[in-house]
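subagent[fold] <- orchestrator: predict structure for attached chain, return tokens only, no commentary.
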Amino acid sequence: MSAIVGRSGTPAARGPGAEGGDGARAALTAAVRPRRFGAWYVAEHRFRVMRSYLQTLLVTGFGNPLLYLLAMGLGLGSLVSANLGPHAVDGVSYLAFVAPALLCTAAVTVASEEFTYPILLGFKWNPTFYGINASPIAPGQIIDGVVISVVARLLGTTAVYFAFMALFGAVPGAWGFVGILIGTIGGLAFGAPIMAYVATIEQDSGQIAMLMRFVLLPLTLFSGTFFPLANMPWFLQWIGWVSPLWHSTQLSRVFSYGMSEPLWLSVVHIVYLLALFVVFWLWARRIAARRLNK
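subagent[fold] -> orchestrator:
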């Protein structure tokens, strides 16, 4: 029988469950850190997964803003300016008008990528979320970790886009850099409802593909991205009003070139985007807890 020396110097016998008790205490101690920083461990996992397609991230991250600004800003923009003058749209050049919208569209695209297939992958195709949930990390922390990783990618994408905008002279205002934060919030507001929906998918029947075709594409076209929303027929303008892309684009234009807009409407943009993200983020956490713990 194993023994330890007591304070008096005499051997003190250890019961048969002492070693088991020490192991249990060690396990509980080791679980404290994952429970506290579980979301960051999940985010680290997502970053490591992103390394597998890092080349694609770099090519699209730098190539898309270059090509879009060349095509829409200098290509189409030169035609608009030639016919309507250098201050053709909203008192600025077409390039200055469309650039904030392209930045916000890039953020929405990133959110639609990271909040769809990786979520379905974790729940169904390669159910890593179930393995993570078997550790001290809680389901809500899994969702939080995914969100953290997406925020990092959104900030990087919008920062690169803004750098190209500045290089092309598409940021007349001194506060244009705020568009980086606005684009990130807009991407989260767009992606959180998608994340919550994808977390409910039990059987993959092409729902994500339909989501891209019948939700993402129409919102890109009908959210005042390439022309003012007021120029659209009245019966289609409601699409822009409910679209996170329109709200983030309008707010980004306010800071980029000083678009004239009532203060109360700018506040509505911010509140709407934050509320949309928070509500569906919390909903996604509840869905994950219900699905992983059943």
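orchestrator: received. Logging for downstream: The first helix runs from residue 18 to 50. The longest strand covers residues 3-5.
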